[in-house]
Amino acid sequence: MQSLDLKVGQKLNEGKTKQIFELLDQPGLVLVQSKDQITAGNAVRKDQMEGKAAIANKTTSCVFQLLQESGIKTAFVKQHSDTAFIAAHCEMIPIEWVCRRVATGSFLKRNPGVKEGYRFSPLKMEMFFKDDANNDPQWSEEQLLEAKFCLAGLTIGQCEVDIMNHSTVAIFEILEKAWATQNCTLVDMKIEFGVNVKTQEIVLADVIDNDSWRLWPAGDRSQQKDKQVYRDLKEVTPEAMQMVKRNFEWVSERVKLLLKPQASSRVVVLMGSTSDMAHCEKIRKACTFYGIPCVLRVTSAHKGPDETLRIKAEYEGDGIPTVFVAVAGRSNGLGPVMSGNTAYPVINCPPLTPDWGSQDVWSSLRMPSGLGCSTVLSPEASAQFAAQIFGLSDHLVWCKLRASMLNTWVSLKLADKKLQACSL
């Protein structure tokens, strides 16, 4: 990757595996530079691993790209070079959020009697205060609230803690879904949040790389590919370090595959006449948001049933999984005729008018037996329903749906916080 010249200023921070530099010509942004260092047990064990910076940077850049394209708010801006990326400048919240699907590691020591492999549904959330001197003690939500951290002008209260909690679950579920496409179990993961100094917004920050999670191919611990392999070494030999490096490289190559769709999909919107165009454009716009191609066609099942069925056959014949959306006002013949003649899903989305809408809608709701088309009145919601169908087989569509759910929840939470502040 071509590294463009940046005006790099002073070092703002240095951790065990990375350095943060200010960017003089881009206020509000920083350069996150990875190091060829691997550590375990709060750097009790510490080794150089040639090429680790590039491997870690490639992994974290791909993970953040996946999350950002899904709709998760992160500090990541873009990969800058083989070993560095550009991010929004954040004041970091000194908490590691740990999310677990399978019980293993330190959880077993802290919870004797729980067997390794116990599955958490819902996910198990834990938080740890970042304090190397005291080995990052586990904290309760109450401790975090009582700490009253103030970062970049934002005080971390109940609202902010709830947002980070919900975000951690969504981020885990998105990465879990993505790794499942490579037949890998995401066992657990740790992440950190920061407050964007420009926007005062809580965003996913720091890095997510092979130090951040446990990853078991085929759900088999003996095949683990993450940093646990390094932690478990009886002694660090050059051969052992080569094995650790090979695992890290395996992950950095696989993580690129998480950005690729697993299945093709398409929504075909059939409208009874071009007077329904504005309604159909809303469906197409919403499909674009989910990354689903959308085709608009004009056909009337009443006036040209042969042509309607010919169009249907056109899209059934190329093997691309398709959801048909029927947009017909007055008497909806399109949806029922399509539903009775295709095994593909059909969604009615009638453009109802104020005068006859309450009567017209029955032609979409009351179906003859043997027809399975659904009716969704909102054009945006019909696209969302199509996305939910495709999300069963395409993780990228599912990830967008999951992030959208989170963002809706967060916006309601922030609106409530703002209203309460106005009422006081």
Automatic annotation (TrEMBL):
<dbReference type="GO" id="GO:0004639">
    <property type="term" value="F:phosphoribosylaminoimidazolesuccinocarboxamide synthase activity"/>
</dbReference>
<dbReference type="InterPro" id="IPR033626">
    <property type="entry name" value="PurE_classII"/>
</dbReference>
<dbReference type="InterPro" id="IPR050089">
    <property type="entry name" value="SAICAR_synthetase"/>
</dbReference>
<keyword id="KW-0547">Nucleotide-binding</keyword>
<comment type="pathway">
    <text>Purine metabolism; IMP biosynthesis via de novo pathway; 5-amino-1-(5-phospho-D-ribosyl)imidazole-4-carboxamide from 5-amino-1-(5-phospho-D-ribosyl)imidazole-4-carboxylate: step 1/2.</text>
</comment>
<dbReference type="GO" id="GO:0006189">
    <property type="term" value="P:'de novo' IMP biosynthetic process"/>
</dbReference>
<dbReference type="GO" id="GO:0005524">
    <property type="term" value="F:ATP binding"/>
</dbReference>
<keyword id="KW-0067">ATP-binding</keyword>
<dbReference type="GO" id="GO:0016831">
    <property type="term" value="F:carboxy-lyase activity"/>
</dbReference>
<comment type="pathway">
    <text>Purine metabolism; IMP biosynthesis via de novo pathway; 5-amino-1-(5-phospho-D-ribosyl)imidazole-4-carboxylate from 5-amino-1-(5-phospho-D-ribosyl)imidazole (carboxylase route): step 1/1.</text>
</comment>
<protein>
    <recommendedName>
        <fullName>PurE domain-containing protein</fullName>
    </recommendedName>
</protein>
<feature type="domain" description="PurE">
    <location>
        <begin position="265"/>
        <end position="412"/>
    </location>
</feature>
<dbReference type="Pfam" id="PF00731">
    <property type="entry name" value="AIRC"/>
</dbReference>
<keyword id="KW-0210">Decarboxylase</keyword>
<keyword id="KW-0511">Multifunctional enzyme</keyword>
<keyword id="KW-0456">Lyase</keyword>
<comment type="subunit">
    <text>Homooctamer.</text>
</comment>
<comment type="similarity">
    <text>In the C-terminal section; belongs to the AIR carboxylase family. Class II subfamily.</text>
</comment>
<keyword id="KW-0658">Purine biosynthesis</keyword>
<comment type="similarity">
    <text>In the N-terminal section; belongs to the SAICAR synthetase family.</text>
</comment>
<dbReference type="GO" id="GO:0005829">
    <property type="term" value="C:cytosol"/>
</dbReference>
<dbReference type="InterPro" id="IPR000031">
    <property type="entry name" value="PurE_dom"/>
</dbReference>
<dbReference type="InterPro" id="IPR028923">
    <property type="entry name" value="SAICAR_synt/ADE2_N"/>
</dbReference>
<dbReference type="InterPro" id="IPR018236">
    <property type="entry name" value="SAICAR_synthetase_CS"/>
</dbReference>
<keyword id="KW-0436">Ligase</keyword>
<dbReference type="Pfam" id="PF01259">
    <property type="entry name" value="SAICAR_synt"/>
</dbReference>
